[in-house]
């Protein structure tokens, strides 16, 4: 079954531009999705150069009712608003992330902090939090030198699956080029997966 790809949001988090396995795999996957849906539009967001971390002013602005926010508070939330809008607009999300020290790069964690916003991407109910971004498909493309994807020491792909589910995106597929220092052929296996999982 072909995933809907009317609008594809590609997020790259690798600090490496040249030679990045996750960038290569994410590009290959997006190319495959475009082949299936030629009229798809692409949104690209490279977070590798860093995003601002949450601070007290951001938190105060976020928890101020939208109608009561000052111009300074609106400006403080402007980037977060943009990132949330990109996520809402996307039918398909492709996230390319290396596993750094068992988890995601700090820049990708900063992206998560900026898009996980009550009343915009999730809401609290009497039965607990409910994600608001349902009906989307996400692909998590990871690469590692030694960490086995999905294992008890993988706090990258498992974390991203949880985060996406928290905001309502439960159709999540993982493509892993893991343990490349020990099994370099896993890169080619993952490249084949980009074709299979997109189909």
Q: Which features does this protein show?
A:
alpha/beta; 37% helix
Describe this structure in words.
By secondary structure, this protein is an alpha/beta fold. The protein has one domain (7-198): Flavodoxin domain (Rossmann fold), CATH 3.40.50. 37% of the residues lie in helices and 21% in strands. The chain is built from 7 helices and 7 strands; from the N terminus they run E-H-E-H-H-H-E-H-E-E-E-H-E-H. A 5-stranded parallel β-sheet has the order 2-1-3-6-7, sandwiched between helices. The chain has a two-stranded antiparallel sheet with strand order 4-5. Helix 6 links the parallel strand 6 and strand 7. Helix 1 (21-36) packs parallel to helix 7. The longest helix has 16 residues, at 21-36. The radius of gyration is 17 Å and the shape is globular. The protein starts with 6 loop residues before the first strand and ends with a helix. The relative contact order is 0.18. The model has no long low-confidence stretch (mean pLDDT 95). InterPro entries: Flavodoxin_fold, Flavoprotein-like_sf, FMN-dep_NADH:Q_OxRdtase_AzoR1, NADH:quinone_OxRdtase_FMN_depd.
